[in-house]
């Protein structure tokens, strides 16, 4: 069965990785995770190419698309993982909840590490949002029809737009989309309190409570796309419909941007449609080339990332933090964390442009992980929740 989750805290499965899997989905997931690791681990945070940074507020960059692509893939994967259980009437709610809790706790652990200070720990984050979207979309897949999922998607996106654009913010007096005074920010600092939100933002969280609702909408788009891929329609028809839906969603997002701006931090409804539409186009192209036309050149390296996606995401966040706890003294007497020491000593000196050096540091990190994941792939090792 297809599963999007692969973590470092659960059992190790040694079944053939190609068994029952949609190769294009593994490829698309792996490409997304490799991009996520690249933007999360530059050699130097002070020198980054603009497309590898998030938009400051309204607007978008390629980096802003990475996380919604992953949530879209979560939705697609659910249709493959749970289709049999839904058809047979199996009760898998307990397993779904267990996976969700495990993912949430892994994200919380990353926020705790290394200080483990409960008074200031950030409660939400990327893995926590994945957990919540996975939980909601899995239960909706089991309990609702595709038509009902479409209606719910429309309701979430329109309802979020109305709430953010027209409902006065308590203590502010008017509806707005400014960073610290919008409705989502007010809810984060009211419920989570400023002590438990994303520290650079101080009084709101980019993976906050209210914006999780439209993020579930991103997962619902994945459910609808996955249902189409699992249907008995001819492959060419599936691709045509995915391209059609993708174009319409992207166009809808660009139109909605005129009065509800595309904004990744707020996960606006226009952002859901834009990112979801582009994800559909990417999946359609991958499916057509890899699973229909059987084009496999250069595919397997990203498949290796895709079949152990959560594993590499979790460890790629944890290991640099561990490395930074190890201090190394340079010949000039300055003390650096091990990761920065290796970057300054073995990568940066080979580049005259610090931006290129920073990118080289990120790509080196990705290639090291590729070596590990390729070994795991060749040994048919998939680590799952």
TrEMBL record:
<feature type="transmembrane region" description="Helical">
    <location>
        <begin position="126"/>
        <end position="143"/>
    </location>
</feature>
<feature type="transmembrane region" description="Helical">
    <location>
        <begin position="208"/>
        <end position="229"/>
    </location>
</feature>
<feature type="transmembrane region" description="Helical">
    <location>
        <begin position="65"/>
        <end position="84"/>
    </location>
</feature>
<keyword id="KW-1133">Transmembrane helix</keyword>
<dbReference type="InterPro" id="IPR012429">
    <property type="entry name" value="HGSNAT_cat"/>
</dbReference>
<keyword id="KW-0472">Membrane</keyword>
<feature type="transmembrane region" description="Helical">
    <location>
        <begin position="265"/>
        <end position="290"/>
    </location>
</feature>
<feature type="transmembrane region" description="Helical">
    <location>
        <begin position="241"/>
        <end position="259"/>
    </location>
</feature>
<feature type="transmembrane region" description="Helical">
    <location>
        <begin position="355"/>
        <end position="377"/>
    </location>
</feature>
<protein>
    <submittedName>
        <fullName>DUF5009 domain-containing protein</fullName>
    </submittedName>
</protein>
<feature type="transmembrane region" description="Helical">
    <location>
        <begin position="150"/>
        <end position="169"/>
    </location>
</feature>
<feature type="domain" description="Heparan-alpha-glucosaminide N-acetyltransferase catalytic">
    <location>
        <begin position="21"/>
        <end position="233"/>
    </location>
</feature>
<feature type="transmembrane region" description="Helical">
    <location>
        <begin position="302"/>
        <end position="323"/>
    </location>
</feature>
<feature type="transmembrane region" description="Helical">
    <location>
        <begin position="96"/>
        <end position="114"/>
    </location>
</feature>
<dbReference type="Pfam" id="PF07786">
    <property type="entry name" value="HGSNAT_cat"/>
</dbReference>
<keyword id="KW-0812">Transmembrane</keyword>
